[in-house]
Amino acid sequence: MVAAADFSTDTGPRHVAVIMDGNGRWAQARGMFRTAGHRSGMEAVRRIVESARALEIPYLTIFGFSAENWGRPVEEVEELMLLLRLYLRSEIADLHKNGVRLRVIGERSRLAADIVNLIEHGETLTAGNSKLNFTVALSYGGRQDVVQAAQKLAEAAIAGEVTPQSIDQDAISARLWTAELPDPDLVIRTSGEQRISNFFLWQSAYAELIFLDTLWPDFSKADLEHAIREFRRRERRYGAVVTNR
Ligand code: FPP
């Protein structure tokens, strides 16, 4: 058992981002439908929010549904949207009670109107909370994020608000969907796959990447603690020689 105090925010990570992978394989290994894996995956989402809160991590982001996930079979997309509705309906009050601020990033216009309403309700209700900044990336793609930031900059240039020469890294960061969030220090991917899969391409420039064999539905507080320990071990080893951070 590790006490929460051992994970105080002094030594980071400040922002943990998670690519939740392996729901399908988890279900397959049990002779169940993929949808059963997603349902168990939703329970794991509840667990990681609770764990992040207990470990006093200030920012947690999960990759809930990628822009590319729209290409999955219609029934699977419908099931994922159903779970998202279920999650938002059942969790928003609890998130608020526990001091969690909810944000959703991604191509919101592609989501159904009732889901957008639930998201807006959740974001408004929890806007004053600061115990944990919990962000769900939905219909999110890292390249799409950079593209929409470029479009905003082009519009600002046309309006005479910026000049091409004035565009720097901060100007781009400020127009990404993640503008209100610090860059992730730690990106975790479950299920043994070692890819970023169009997640935080810009934002992960200096992040530590940790790949776990655990399938997402099995993800526990112990896995999060393990990843944080590994993150801190790497920080201690390389912190003194890396100056450009
Ligand atoms: C990857 O597993 C996971 C997803 C595509 C979506 C994650 C969704 C959930 C955890 C359900 C609930 C979501 C929210 C936001 C409440 P996979 O299907 O790619 O697994 P596989 O690689 O083993 O096939």
CATH topology: Undecaprenyl pyrophosphate synthetase
Major sheet: order of its strands?
3-4-2-1-5-6
- Gross geometry: globular
Counting H and I runs of at least 4 residues, what is the number of helices?
7
Characterize the largest beta sheet: strand count, sense, and whether it forms a barrel.
6 strands, parallel
CATH fourth-tier homologous superfamily: Decaprenyl diphosphate synthase-like
As residue ranges, the low-confidence spans are: 1-5
- The strand count comes to 6
Distance between the termini: 32 Å
Q: Helices and strands: which structural class?
A: alpha/beta
The Rg value, from CA coordinates, equals: 18 Å
Number of domains: 1
Q: Please estimate the helix content.
A: 40-55%
Strand content is 5-15%
Ligands? farnesyl diphosphate
Would you summarize the structure shown here?
43% of the residues lie in helices and 15% in strands. The chain is of the alpha/beta class and 245 residues long.
Structural summary, described in words:
The chain has 245 residues and is an alpha/beta fold. Helices cover 43% and strands 15% of the residues. The chain is built from seven helices and six strands. The protein has a six-stranded parallel beta sheet, with helices on both faces. The protein is globular. It starts with 14 loop residues before the first strand and ends in a 7-residue tail after the last helix. It binds farnesyl diphosphate. Residues 20-25, 38, 41-42, 45, 64-65, 69, 80, 83-84, 87, 136, 191, 216 line the site of farnesyl diphosphate.
